[in-house]
User: What shape does this take?
Amino acid sequence: MRSNYLFTSESVSEGHPDKVSDQISDAIVDLMLSKDPEARVACETMTTTQRVILSGEIRCKAMYDSENAAWAFNGGWAPGAKDEIERAVRSTVRDIGYEQEGFHWKTLAFENHLHGQSAHIAQGVDSGADGSGKDEGAGDQGIMFGFACDETPDFMPATLDYSHKILERLANDRHSGTAPFLEPDAKSQVTLRYENGKPVACTAIVVSTQHAEGYDEGEKEAELHAYVKGVVADILPEGFISNETIWHINPTGSFVIGGPDGDAGLTGRKIIVDTYGGAAPHGGGAFSGKDPTKVDRSAAYITRYLAKNVVAAGLATRCTIQIAYAIGVSEPLSLYVDTHGTAAQGVTDARLEDAIQSIDKLGGLTPRSIRTHLGLNKPIYRISAAYGHFGRTADGDTFPWERTDLVDDLKAALV
Assistant: This one.
């Protein structure tokens, strides 16, 4: 591994068109799980000028049942279900803050093309309720990665952590009225210089934020630039910003037209923003819009949880974990741990693999065991769909994969 280098990560705000789509898709997941903890959801959202379109498949008898004759007149939808879905969509857009001519929560056109889940997918996932003894299988094949490092108190790559926090501050100031000239769409990018493998300075900052009319010239532009520089200075560690730091604030000039009016948005296009900012491998599967039987989501959460606990336990300063599944099969095909040469004395990657698989309270790494241990069958997902799924604060039911309650178990398993 190189010890001296520059590295860059980006983030996008809750008002970015792809993130609007992610939040809508996860609002649908939350709605279905609030009706039925065993609901199945695969919801894709497209957003564009004054329009939101949902597609995908669900299984939630409280909302949709194509075999129920009483609901047949409504295409399988329970009475009022389609209205609930539309309300969830519009309230999500409203909460983000879109009340613009090109995208307004109240007046946008809405289309719902969700339908029932494929029976051929369901049969591979369902457990053996018929007495066959079959355990619940993974919702799809694939590889998932988890990662943690000691660069920040959140156990996240510093470049991504700071990129997220810059945009969170902009959003909070916009919602509170502290920065009324800001609009919802924004992007950030942070480049840090690493020495001996640790971040020591910021060499470049990029912040592009949608703004009110007039804030692209003169005194108002200067006000916006000064505000952004103040936010960045508050977020980054003291001494990281210097006279040598390169700044690009709204480098294209005017940014009044933004969000889905400026560019179409789709669920699942910001997978690197959602995870580790390019500092770790990615298996390719997105999170938003998927219920936790989909290992794209749940296995990525458990591998983050495991990697974070390895680093929090002081067993390594950097840890990547990969896990793989086959659709319809409950047990993972492989578990791989890589501490990148940073493991504590006496700790090896192979020993960590054995230790993880020996911890009884995990209950194994089957899809159902993961959901049970982390409590994933709950409506906790919309909040995760902006500013990263990882590096957040575990609070009650939310972000359970960020807990560090496995530290003692890992240490004990290595004795």
